[in-house]
Every structure is written in structure tokens, then in C-alpha cells.
């Protein structure tokens, strides 16, 4: 069983419902073990689009990295994501942040995710669930990496319980 970190984002439609649906579609192949607080952030890259809701979950899976990526992409499709511009608006974005202590880089997938250390909207929720985790190739843990990025545009909207449909 591998431990994985998955970033969740949404900025189209009912953003909260999209994230909750994405979480609900992960099992049984991916079992969520921890969920961060929910944050809102400004878009990166293509800035003329709605703000994002962001979170991170830790999970366990027997899927290897590429089958996990395919599973996440199917979930994105099921929630309404269609091909579009890179960093453009989307109802659901699921990214593999890490997979155990693996390092992997090919034409389809890079693990750990290559831009984690630059993104406060990923590091802040990752620090909620794995503050002391040190990713392969990193000299510092997540908490220390977070201290080095700007998180001024992040707004914490809800604690970890947001992921259940009954949550406010």
C-alpha cells in the first residue's frame, strides 16, 4: 500500500460540490486518510478566470503511479473537466503531489510534482496534513518550504470536515 498526496482544485461551477464529488469518487482504489482545510486562492498562469478552491488529501492505494494518474483523470472527466488551455479554468483538478518516496519523471508524469515548492496554494494545505514530510530531493520538510513562499492571497474557508456532504 503506497501513501500518496493528492492536490484538489476547482474554479468552475459549484466548486465545493466538485471537490466533494472528486473525493467521493476516489474509493475504493484510493482510500483517503487525511484531508486538509479548504482554501481559496487566486489563479496562477492564466489569471483572467475565477478563484480556485484548493485542498490536499493523503491517501493509500495499491495503484502504481500511472494507473493512479489514469484514475484521477477519469474522475476529473466524470466531474466535467474537458481539454482546455494549460492552467485554464476547470471544474476539477487532481494532481499527484507525491507517491511514497518515489522519484519518477517521464512524458506523462513527474513525481514529486515539479511545482509544489513554488505554490502556496499547495504547500499550505499539504502542511495541514503532512507538515514534517520531506519529499524526495528536498532538503527541508513541507512546513519549512511553506515558510519560504507567499501565501498572502490564500483564504482559509473551512476546516477539514468540509469534505463530507453534510459539512457547511
Which helices and strands, and how do they pair?
Blueprint: E1 2-10, H1 15-25, E2 30-35, E3 38-41, E4 52-61, H2 65-78, E5 93-99, E6 104-105, E7 110-111, H3 120-129, H4 142-147, E8 155-158
Antiparallel strand pairs: 1-4, 1-5, 2-4, 3-4, 3-8, 6-7
Helix content: 10-25%
Shape: globular
- Written as H for each helix and E for each strand, in order along the chain, the element string is EHEEEHEEEHHE
What is the straight-line distance between the termini? 32 Å
The overall average pLDDT, rounded, is 92
Q: Please report the total strand number as a whole number.
A: 8
Our count of helices gives 4
The share of residues in extended strands comes to 25-35%
Task: Give the biggest beta sheet.
Answer: 6 strands, antiparallel
Low-confidence stretches: none
Instruction: Determine the structural class based on helices, strands and strand pairing.
Output: alpha+beta
Structure description:
There is one protein chain. With 168 residues, this protein is an alpha+beta fold. Helix content is 24%, strand content 26%. The chain is built from 4 helices and 8 strands; from the N terminus they run βαβββαβββααβ. It has helices spanning 15-25, 65-78, 120-129, 142-147; strands spanning 2-10, 30-35, 38-41, 52-61, 93-99, 104-105, 110-111, 155-158. Strands 1, 2, 3, 4, 5 and 8 form a 6-stranded antiparallel β-sheet that branches. Strands 6-7 form a two-stranded antiparallel ribbon. The longest helix has 14 residues, at 65-78. The chain is globular and about 35 Å long. The mean pLDDT is 92.
Amino acid at each position: 500500500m503506497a501513501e500518496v498526496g493528492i492536490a484538489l482544485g476547482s474554479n468552475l461551477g459549484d466548486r465545493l460540490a466538485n471537490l466533494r464529488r472528486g473525493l467521493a469518487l476516489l474509493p475504493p482504489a484510493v482510500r483517503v486518510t487525511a484531508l486538509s482545510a479548504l482554501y481559496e486562492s487566486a489563479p496562477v498562469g492564466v489569471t483572467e478566470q475565477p478563484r480556485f478552491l484548493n485542498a490536499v488529501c493523503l491517501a493509500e492505494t495499491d495503484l502504481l503511479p500511472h494507473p493512479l494518474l489514469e484514475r484521477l483523470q477519469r474522475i476529473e472527466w466524470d466531474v466535467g473537466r474537458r481539454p482546455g488551455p494549460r492552467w485554464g479554468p476547470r471544474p476539477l483538478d487532481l494532481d499527484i503531489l507525491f507517491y511514497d518516496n518515489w522519484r519518477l519523471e517521464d512524458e506523462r508524469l513527474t513525481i514529486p510534482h515539479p511545482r509544489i515548492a513554488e505554490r502556496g496554494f499547495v504547500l499550505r494545505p499539504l502542511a495541514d496534513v503532512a507538515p514534517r514530510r520531506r519529499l524526495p530531493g528536498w532538503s527541508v520538510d513541507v512546513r519549512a518550504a511553506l515558510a519560504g513562499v507567499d501565501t498572502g492571497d490564500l483564504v482559509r474557508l473551512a476546516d477539514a470536515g468540509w469534505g463530507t456532504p453534510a459539512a457547511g
